[in-house]
Design goal:
The chain is built from 9 helices and 7 strands. The strands form 2 sheets. A 5-stranded antiparallel beta sheet has the order 1-2-3-7-4. The chain is an alpha+beta fold. It folds into 2 domains: 152 residues, Gyrase A, domain 2, CATH 3.30.1360; 59 residues, no CATH class. A hairpin with a 7-residue loop joins strand 5 and strand 6. Bound molecules: flavin-adenine dinucleotide (FAD).
């Protein structure tokens, strides 16, 4: 059985309550090579020449053959992550609806550390607050979540629609589940932006899991070429 088939259904935890699950894949490295060779109605010429062609395609940004491969994921992530993910317009997405599905008391994200504001970049974080301050912030966050959820329940109990009652929830922290699909070309674009060190730590965790746990096993040649010709030019180091 190929690696591709064996990891369909695999789910990897991300953050405190999230996950990425591979729901489906269409295509493999050879599909990319064969799509490129249709130009002259050819097909595979053996692993060595196929791999060489694939590296050539990636290096020279001959991108459309990479769009022949598709990945579909089921992802659970806090809204702060979705807020950034949805900017990637080439993805196809369907989301859990807070109008249909009520939220539960533990549907909120707790950061593992309280990162400090970076002094040299208004968008970034740098370092973490000390342990005592962190414990206090986590306690306050917990209090905030408990209060928000209590008010949400109160509104529901008063007969308010779920679409309005959710105004009481701490918005950016709420976990939502989505089904998302992207082709390999646009997935690499997403990964190069969201694995980079200037992306928010939370979305980087999702991008890293997608690359390491799913992209690499399904497209080993493409992943190698992508690392060599794209990621090596980026800072993707963990903080
Ligand atoms: C570190 C970081 C910080 C950011 N900060 C901000 C911010 O402060 N404010 C903010 O608003 N956004 C911010 N963004 C989001 C950013 O501007 C992009 O919207 C997001 O990264 C998606 O990139 P994209 O448009 O290239 O990707 P996609 O939407 O996936 O598109 C892929 C490519 O397809 C092409 N494309 C897709 N749709 C169209 C279209 N309709 N017309 C023309 N070409 C199209 C483009 O070439 C594009 O590069 C940030 C992103 C990052 C990574």
């Amino acid at each position: 059985m190929s690696e591709k088939i064996s990891i369909i259904g695999k789910s990897v935890p991300v953050l405190d309550k999230g996950f990425v699950e591979l729901q489906d894949v269409m295509g493999d490295d050879l599909a990319i090579v064969n799509a490129a060779r249709v130009s002259f109605l050819g097909e595979s010429k053996g692993p060595e020449r196929d791999k060489k062609l694939l590296f050539y395609l990636l290096r020279h940004r001959h991108t459309s053959p990479f769009e022949q491969v598709e990945f579909k994921f089921r992802v659970r992530a806090p809204l702060v992550v979705w807020w950034q993910w949805v900017r990637h317009r080439t993805w196809h997405m369907n989301a859990q609806s807070g109008r249909y599905t009520p939220f539960e008391e533990n549907d909120f994200y707790y950061p593992p550390e309280w990162r400090k504001q970076a002094s040299d970049n208004k968008q970034a974080s740098d370092g973490v607050v000390d342990e005592m301050a962190a414990d206090e912030l986590t306690r306050l966050l917990d209090e905030h979540y408990t209060q928000g959820f209590k008010l949400y329940k109160k509104a529901l109990d008063a007969g308010v629609a779920k679409e309005l009652a959710r105004l009481f929830l701490p918005g950016f922290s709420v976990y939502y589940t989505w089904v998302v699909k992207a082709d390999a070309h646009n997935l690499m674009h997403f990964l190069s932006l969201r694995m980079a060190s200037d992306a928010q730590w939370e979305i980087r965790q999702y991008a890293r899991v997608i690359f390491e746990e799913f992209f690499k096993p399904v497209l080993p040649w493409t992943a190698e070429a992508f690392e060599q010709h794209r990621l090596s030019h980026l800072d993707i180091s963990e903080d």
